[in-house]
Known about the structure:
The complex is a heterodimer of chains A (221) and B (216). By secondary structure, chain A is mainly alpha-helical. Chain A has nine helices and no strands. In chain A, helix 2 (37-56) crosses helix 6 (149-168). The longest helix of chain A has 21 residues, at 59-79. The N and C termini of chain A lie far apart (43 Å). Chain B is of the alpha+beta class and 216 residues long. Chain B has one domain (1-216): Jelly Rolls (Sandwich), CATH 2.60.120.10. In chain B, the strands form three sheets. Chain B has a six-stranded antiparallel beta sheet with strand order 1-2-3-10-5-8, covered by helices on one side. The two termini of chain B are 31 Å apart. The chains are: A mainly alpha (221), B alpha+beta (216). At the A-B interface, helix 1, helix 3, helix 4, helix 5 and helix 6 of A face helix 1, helix 2, helix 3, helix 4 and helix 5 of B.
Amino acid sequence: MIHATPLLEKTDTAFARSQMAAPWRLSKRKLKMSPTEQTRSHGDDWNAQILRVRNHRDETAFAALFNHFAPRIKGFLVNSGASGTMAEECAQETMITLWHKAHLFDPSRASAATWIFTIARNKKIDAFRRAARVEPEDLPWGPEPEPEAADALALSQETAQLAEALNALPESQRDIVKRAYYGDLSHSELAKETGLPLGTIKSRIRLALERLRQTLNEPVR
Amino acid sequence: MTVKHILNEQLLMGYAAGILPEAFDLVVASHLSLSDESRAMLGGYEAIGGAVMEDSDAVEMGADALASVMGRIKSEGTVQSKPAIKHAKPGILPEPLQDYVGGDVDKIKWRPLGGGVKQAILRTSGKAQARLLFIPAGAAVPDHGHRGTELTLVLQGAFSDEVDTFARGDIEIANEDLNHQPIASEDADCICLAATDAPLRFNSLIPRLLQPIFRI
């Protein structure tokens, strides 16, 4: 069991409100072409492959998605404390769910990597907890039957930037963000391991997230 | 829906990462059902999760994994389009909570705590515990501190304590520093969902003696 005790503090409402929209969301402006284009087109590519699975039950597209994502899901789960067997099974189940639930994929709301991550995370919780994941109620999103292509593109660009921002963090900070997602971040344990006092760890995480946000709000080079 | 007191970033991140105990997951999922703002923020933390996953070192899948997955997909082919099993109707309790209760507020099996205050403990795995609390209009929950963290989500009515007033959808995050006495507002009975990761510490003797019996 890898329950980490999250850092809990009183809600910093003012701060939360300043992050009203998704915290990484960029202001609407034209993004200049940059070396990051390549990453972006990869993200778009994965979106397109899922849509091919969705619309045409395209097995070639599915195989491409499988070859890219399944080993990363497995890696993520192994880092999260799953055994090799459990990680393999969860990764396979994630891909099966991707096939069956492709009709629920909406590229204007989540990128391929984000969507696949949430499926994998739920499989992990189910496996660890052997009970159903608690999911929020589906809220009506208003009358928008077809996702706007522009929204989907903007989202995919933002997500690509997010991945870049993560990679651009100093290693110590990137490591902390990653370990938080691996559930490796029971803070008292981390304190033991790193010898850092709890307060320092909390402020480091805050700093890492802050850096991530700032990077994402900086103008594109 | 506009909710005044929303989750902090650590809890949203913990939920996005899937590392919270089940009782906290339940409170967070219920709150997310009531707060568009928290949902928008959750999207951000899930995107970071996606980036972390993509950045994870790939671990090779079993030799015939793809073939095996395709085989399973094809053999399951006929059951794939069954409709989602969702019986919950819009009510006082958000859908994730209705799944635990087996319906809306009329299905809650309350147990009296004295003074008109009632509670219902929900079955969750892990160390943290989730329970529903019913506080009659104008009544108070015994003054208590916390050994760990307590999340309280208001589902009906409102309560006030030393911090502020909390209404439907609002979440109060209390830790060891806070010693508080929530009082329900006069106009309606208050129903809350609370999760604690350590037993509450009551400040007067009688509730302390009753604590093992009431399991709070």
